[in-house]
Amino acid sequence: KIFSTLYSPEPLLRALALLNFRWPSRIQARAIPILLRDPPRNLLGQSQSGTGKTATFVITMLTRIDFTKSFTQGLVLAPTRELARQIMDVIQALGQYMGVKTQFAIPAMFVKGREFDAHIVVGTPGTTLDCVRKGQLDLDHLKMLVVDEADNMLDLQGLGEQCIRIKSKRYAPDCLTMTLEHHELTVAGIKQMYMDCLNAEAKFGVLVQLYHVLTIGSSIIFVHRREDANRIAERMATEGHKISVLHSALENGGVARDKVIDDFRTGHTKVLITTNVLARGIDVSTVSMVVNYDLPMDKDGKIDFPTYLHRIGRTGRFGRIGVSISFVHDTVSWMQLMQVSDHFGVSISKVPTGDVEVGSHFIRCDIFKG
User: What's the mean pLDDT in 28-42?
Assistant: First the structure.
């Protein structure tokens, strides 16, 4: 199929052509025809990272909205402001010939006290709910609600699986589902590797040596705590590296976070150190490598498989080749990495740490092999 067969309006098809969207991805080809049927049906959709889930619901939303009406008909909820801003970029790009009016419901990005009159509102849950409670955001005419990264958002609220099932039956009855088989979860285009460090402190030395000899596009380093992100960034800066840091406790709040991600997206900075705030959904096409300085853990101290998958999914976007490198430094972290390997049924290759030149050559070969 091509997009012109998916019954989208001509102005939207023109924007798709301008953006070189010709052939729908698997999730787009399956989901869009269903989402455009009448009467509308609820849908739970799952797909690998970087396969066009955002465009799937944006195309549907832009097709269903009546642009002659000046009230809110579409609402998108995202777990972070970074993802909300990225979704808005897609809406504005695909809706550029349709006269779509959009507004944010995220901190420091809307006028307090002023009523929303946009066709589509994109927000984070807390701010959006606050706007609804204060009467700024009227949802009486809502045609489409999208909860992006829904599993993560519900998990952040501390909802157990049983509670989630009850809520889904109440608020999304007769929901259609499009989910992946377990073996389909991991991303084939990402070469997964690990480096065995002597101890926890030795990880930093290996990281610095790696970046001294390895020249690639952009990369993201994931750490467990924001204090570690700041500390590693300061130490790498003294080694001459230009580093950006992104986490939820940056000074100046959202404004500072916006500048960090904008600088990284435009290539002003090439290395970004972050916590899990950036693990979900962010698409920066130049990211060739992801480093798990710390493996992701859940609140119970166990390996967090979904977050691992989303982290490495920041590279290898939409079929591109990418590399993920995880640091291990003791028996516990080694066993956790083996759990990842077993869980996803993938082989994770060892990168030599004794000779970083050899190790960097090993990585470069995998990045550029495809």
Answer: 89
Phi and psi of 336, rounded to 5°? -65, -40
- Of 360, 121, 108, 89, the closest CA to residue 257 belongs to 108
Q: What is the DSSP string of 46-107?
A: ---TTSSHHHHHHHHHHHH--TTS-S--EEEE-SSHHHHHHHHHHHHHHTTTTT--EEEEST
Rounded distance between C-alpha atoms, residue 294 and residue 286, angstroms: 22
Q: pTM of the entire structure?
A: 0.79
- For the chain, residues classed under CATH 3.40.50.300 are 3-180, 186-369
Do 246 and 278 meet the contact criterion of CB atoms below 8 Å apart?
yes
pLDDT in tens, 149-168: 877 776 655 545 555 555 56
pLDDT tens track for 186-209:
666 788 999 999 999 999 999 988
Report yes or no: 79 and 157 within 8 Å, Cβ to Cβ.
no
Distance CA 210, CA 192 (A): 16
Q: Kindly report the CATH number that applies to the domain delimited by 3-180.
A: 3.40.50.300
- Residues 6 or more apart whose Cβ sits within 8 Å of residue 22: 2, 3, 16
Q: What is the CATH number that goes with domain 186-369?
A: 3.40.50.300
Residue holding tokens 């009016």?
101
